UniProtKB/TrEMBL annotation, chains A, B:
This is Dyp-type peroxidase family. Pfam families: Dyp_perox_C, Dyp_perox_N. It comes from the Bacteria. Its EC number is 1.11.1.19. One of its GO terms (cellular component) is cytosol.
């Protein structure tokens, strides 16, 4: 079967990342599997072997490539829970999360059959503004850990608003995700009540080439300009100044963005591309051919008009030359719910827009201010929820826990 | 790299089914990939190549192995839509479904990028009781196409009740599923309004060995006794008598079953297994070792008590010796929603229990009657929704459509 390896088969094998380095794949001559120009064959792996390391300098689930499914749960701390209670909660949650992400059964969970497929599960914890009051650390709260400023076009529903704690669970397996979510909610039940749950999805594991930028429900490639190298991530995402408890942490902004598919779908493809400034086919800027080509905002067409409309989403969100810090890590998921009873809409869809950055005042807010003032996409999208969380640094060992340096006995 | 093929590597390759028969996988020596006793290595395929054939004697999505994600949409026919309108709707829907399942863009859909990954998409259509009135075929309505009888323990919410039409979409990719669902809803919007949407999930594609029986959120292996051979399916699922328009069709019963995880999780594992009559580890009957071992209901323990509790779910649902027809094809999906606002429950979970059969009066109702009278599981589960649909036979060609023989001009 594998006596003759064609050059392509060899290339396929060499570009294939394999679970635990254990399987090598070899392609036989078959036109339908031949990678086209600019594409690569999908990695062939076995999902149930896949894990993301929980321990590290940074929390997982931030720069981790987005998994297929999201459960984002916001919590309100119950009355009477004090700093000692928060410490117990975070010790408990951290221990349980580390076990779940490793495919192990947390204490008190009698169902190893539901935890043996972590499928790239990540569990990421964040602290809302009021948590600093609860733990008596008002004076340590970062300036930026406050509600995002209100924009003229916002229609924020408080039911998707600020919360005391957030747990972001992302997983390539929906059953594992449901069980892990259930476990975390139950484990925390003495300390916190669920405020909201935002669920989302992207393509399934294996449905697209690895590393392919996800698409939203408007069909747009969404997240092309994300920081991909450790240097870019350090530059945009990870806090690298201030107190020790904040360093290597980040800031998560969650915006719930309703997308009106009913009116969007009336547009022809060209109008859709003009609104975005990018091609629908592969996300390339309208001045380029490939997704990662640099946009040429100065380029004009034969009428002397700019090829990329200055009011397009891409042009408006692009950082000005004198403000290169206006970049964020987008980690958005699609949501798609049944229309509300009585609604005339055919859909109730949009984005759970999650982004990470060092400082939302300098990053998300500056970008959003421009988009609020003018963005062709505004006709079809509405921000309906907003919350901000401090993401503490990663957990380094089993004796460590989320926020330990902020909450430690010695403080 | 593949010069030496170990025996295990060869076995791996030979048990691997590959998309379009194009890739062969060869395992290198690596202990962590060694299949344990009684297990086999998961099939290694590329999800975005996977399709399920739409055309055939029977509709797909019935005996098709359950995909990871479900959208089950029930519709009410709009006032004024008559038989000709239903015919137009079903022609349109059938054409669109056949294209979507093949990874092609249906007419009026401008987003080939959102339809190029069918990922085993199936779209299955069913007719509710009132559809026969709307098309003036009351006298042809099957006796069994009527609400399931009310059981003593039912707490049915009409919002999950009978409807005129149902479309079941199942897919291994959540984004493809969302787009296909959106397309079908929009395509039908002139004729029908959405009544309810039931979403569900199982393990992701690739997360478990192919053909492994799914688990529900109680951790139970669910669906062991399903008909697996064409003979069993013909016996239990496919209508093989009566008018031509019904033959090779089936009956879908949808029950929404709430499962109380909060009280279930108080039980120890032994109590959970006694309730079910099966082992949690692999679904084996408590009298056996492997999932598919025959249950021995006569076997007693050292105290002379039956090993399988006669009130266990398995014992109660097992067909009596004189009624072998009391079997159904279960194709249930888990649901897991945020708790309703104000609820003290930590979860809002259960099953979208879908089953297929020839005649629910003789099959589902007979089984459910026994379960309603006594089933240890009843303490933790509640039926909260019920609907019945006739599933017309498969579509044989592009000129054919769902229900054509029932709706044809000559009738």
């Amino acid at each position: 079967m594998a006596k003759q390896l064609s050059r392509r088969a060899f290339l396929t094998a060499s570009t294939t990342t394999v679970a635990a380095g254990t399987l090598a794949a070899c392609a036989s001559e078959q036109p339908s599997r031949q990678p086209g120009p600019g594409t690569s064959i999908s990695p062939i792996r076995v999902l149930h072997e896949e894990k993301v390391e929980f321990f590290g300098t940074h929390q997982a689930g931030v720069v981790t490539p987005a998994q297929a499914n999201l459960n984002l749960i916001a919590f309100t701390v119950r009355a009477g829970v004090d700093k000692a209670g928060i410490r117990r909660l975070l010790r408990l949650w951290t221990a349980d999360a580390s076990r779940l992400c490793a495919g192990q059964t947390p204490l008190g969970d009698l169902e190893p059959e539901l935890t043996d497929t972590p499928a790239n599960l990540t569990i990421t914890c964040g602290f809302g503004p009021r948590l600093f009051d609860i733990i008596g650390a008002q004076d340590q709260r970062p300036d930026w850990l406050a509600p995002i400023k209100q924009y003229s076009r916002d229609k924020l529903d408080p039911k998707w608003g600020e919360a005391d704690l957030v747990v972001q669970l992302c997983c390539d397996d929906p059953l594992m995700l449901a069980h892990a979510t259930r476990h975390m909610v139950r484990a925390g039940a003495d300390y916190v009540a669920t405020k909201w749950v935002q669920r989302g999805f992207l393509h399934a594991y294996g449905a697209k080439d690895e590393g392919q930028t996800p698409r939203n429900l408007f069909g747009q490639v969404d997240g092309t300009v994300n920081p991909r190298t450790p240097e870019e991530q350090l530059d945009q995402v990870w806090i690298d100044e201030g107190p020790d408890w904040a360093r290597n942490g980040s800031c998560m902004v969650v915006r719930r963005i309703a997308m009106n598919l009913d009116t969007w779908e009336i547009l022809d493809r060209e109008s859709r591309e003009v609104s975005m400034g990018r091609k629908l086919s592969n996300g390339a800027p309208l001045t380029g051919d490939e997704e990662f080509d640099q946009a040429d905002f100065a380029k004009t067409d034969s009428f002397g008009l700019p090829v990329i409309d200055p009011m397009s989403h891409m042009a408006r969100s692009h950082p000005p030359a004198d403000h290169p810090e206006q970049r964020i890590l987008r980690r958005a998921y699609n949501y798609d719910l049944p229309p509300e009873p009585g609604s005339e809409q055919l859909s109730n869809s949009g984005l759970v827009f999650i982004c990470f950055q060092k400082n939302p005042k300098l990053q998300f807010e500056a970008i959003q201010q421009r988009l609020d003032e003018g963005d062709r996409l505004n006709q079809w999208i509405t921000h309906i929820g907003s919350a901000v969380f401090f993401i503490p640094p990663g957990v380094q060992s089993e004796s460590d826990y989320w926020g330990a340096e902020l909450l430690g006995e010695h403080q």
